[in-house]
């Protein structure tokens, strides 16, 4: 080997080592887009204990970077208090509750904890048991094992009216029995989910993720160009809802193909009399009965909170909101009313947040991110705290 070739080889090896070291450093100190979830056979996905990531807001929402830390018990937030050290409330739900888009001190759970602690004048611990992409069936499976370990004084279950009924068709953890009760089902996860949860180099490297996030921010600041919204239409979402129902209910297909891409339940909103709409409402009620019975066996009360979708609460929120209102069968409250009815028929006390969020665009993010803004987190926490304090559920 010539001296020149050796120099090139040494330079190449040095560059490769530097890239690997830089990638490790970024993954450790600045884990933009890092994978913080693991697959689990019991309820599909869960947080990896001790994992961290950086959530990057869309440019239209300020482009801020939010650090998400998972404690050793697998919940977002600080380590759990010792048993009996505080009045413990566990809040289950999806991305609205996980609140990865908010600094931990601005999240719904932390705000709820601060309000209750101040008004009760005693230590309160609100455990953030939200997981991105979760639905009621996953919550039920999780409660079966967690309630005995966590020993909470109260469970708060957030039901996202915009997609939680559809989640039951996609997650496939329960089927509707002939007697109207929820039957446990054993789904068949698509092998491609393993690849989705795996870390791939270079596309998901720390260098690549950080560079993409920095470019998105710079592009918005210099050119005013934001992130493209995911294209969707009422017709497309209606066809998707009917397809999900057909595959699961009519064809008996137990294959689970995605865990994070939830969609607005267009069939319940636009075609409430359709069989898919009726089946989804019935299964949601049956699963909430299961939640109530699991909690009763653990002697833990449950408070349901129904969250309205931005597309339903705000008339001109986005193109879908405008399009939906052109349909003569559409009613803005249909999805919230369906979720509230399912919870109350399951004999669970229920808080409906639709009136609080109706017409208030400032309570949501924009540009394709329909989660609560900081103002929305604060309002939801205030409303839920007031209801809990007046309900007698906190003892």
Characterise the protein shown here.
The structure is a single chain. With 395 residues, this protein is an alpha/beta fold. It has a domain of 261 residues: Rossmann fold (3-Layer(aba) Sandwich), CATH 3.40.50. Helix content is 46%, strand content 15%. It has 15 helices and 13 strands. A 5-stranded parallel beta sheet has the order 6-5-7-12-13, with helices on both faces. The protein has a two-stranded antiparallel sheet with strand order 1-2. Strand 3 and strand 4 form a beta hairpin. Helix 5 crosses helix 10. 43% of the residues are buried. About 5% of the residues have low confidence.
CATH superfamily placement of the domain at 91-183 and 224-391:
SGNH hydrolase
CATH architecture descriptor of the domain at 91-183 and 224-391: 3-Layer(aba) Sandwich
**What proportion of the residues is helical, as a percent range?**
40-55%
Strand content: 5-15%
Instruction: Give the ordered list of helices and strands.
Output: HEEEEEHHEHEHEEEHHHEHHEHHHEHH
Name the features.
395 residues, alpha/beta, Rossmann fold, two-stranded antiparallel ribbon, globular
Write the layout of secondary structure elements.
Layout: H1 3-29, E1 37-40, E2 44-47, E3 52-56, E4 65-69, E5 87-93, H2 95-98, H3 108-120, E6 124-130, H4 136-150, E7 154-160, H5 164-171, E8 174-176, E9 182-184, E10 188-189, H6 192-197, H7 206-223, H8 234-250, E11 255-256, H9 266-270, H10 275-297, E12 302-307, H11 310-313, H12 319-324, H13 334-345, E13 350-352, H14 354-357, H15 374-391
Parallel strand pairs: 5-6, 5-7, 7-12, 10-11, 12-13
Antiparallel strand pairs: 1-2, 3-4, 8-9
């Amino acid at each position: 080997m010539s001296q020149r070739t050796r120099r090139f080889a040494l330079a190449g090896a040095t560059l490769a080592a530097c890239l690997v070291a830089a990638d490790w450093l970024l993954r450790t100190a600045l884990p933009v887009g890092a994978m913080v979830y693991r697959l689990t056979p019991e309820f599909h996905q869960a947080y990896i204990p001790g994992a961290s990531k950086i959530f990057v807001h869309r440019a239209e929402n300020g482009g801020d970077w939010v650090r998400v830390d998972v404690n050793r018990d697998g919940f977002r937030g600080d380590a759990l208090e010792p048993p009996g050290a505080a009045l413990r409330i566990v809040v289950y739900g999806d991305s609205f509750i996980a609140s990865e888009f908010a600094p931990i001190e601005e999240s719904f759970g932390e705000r709820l904890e601060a309000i209750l602690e101040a008004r009760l004048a005693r230590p309160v611990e609100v455990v953030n048991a939200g997981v991105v992409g979760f639905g009621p069936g996953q919550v039920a499976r999780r409660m079966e094992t967690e309630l005995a370990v966590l020993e909470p004084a109260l469970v708060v279950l957030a039901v996202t009216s915009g997609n939680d009924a559809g989640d039951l068709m996609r997650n496939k953890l329960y089927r509707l029995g002939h007697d109207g009760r929820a039957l446990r089902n054993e789904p068949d996860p698509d092998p491609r989910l393993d690849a989705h949860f795996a870390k791939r180099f270079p596309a998901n490297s720390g260098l690549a993720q950080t560079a993409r996030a920095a470019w998105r921010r710079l592009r918005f600041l210099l050119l005013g160009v934001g992130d493209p919204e995911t294209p969707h239409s009422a017709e497309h979402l209606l066809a998707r809802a009917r397809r999900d129902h057909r595959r699961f209910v009519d064809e008996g297909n137990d294959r689970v193909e995605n865990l994070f891409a939830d969609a607005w339940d267009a069939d319940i909103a636009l075609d409430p009399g359709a069989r898919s709409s009726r089946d989804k409402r019935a299964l949601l009620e049956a699963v909430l009965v299961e939640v109530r019975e699991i909690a009763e066996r653990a002697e833990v009360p449950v408070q349901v909170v129904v969250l309205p979708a931005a597309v339903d609460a705000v008339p001109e929120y986005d193109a879908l909101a405008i399009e939906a209102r052109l349909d003569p069968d559409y009613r803005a409250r249909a999805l919230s009313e369906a979720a509230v009815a399912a919870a109350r028929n399951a004999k669970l006390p229920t808080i409906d947040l639709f009136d609080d969020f109706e017409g208030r665009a400032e309570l949501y993010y924009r540009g394709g991110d329909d989660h609560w803004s900081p103002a929305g987190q604060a309002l939801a926490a205030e409303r839920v705290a007031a209801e809990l304090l007046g309900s007698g559920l906190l003892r």
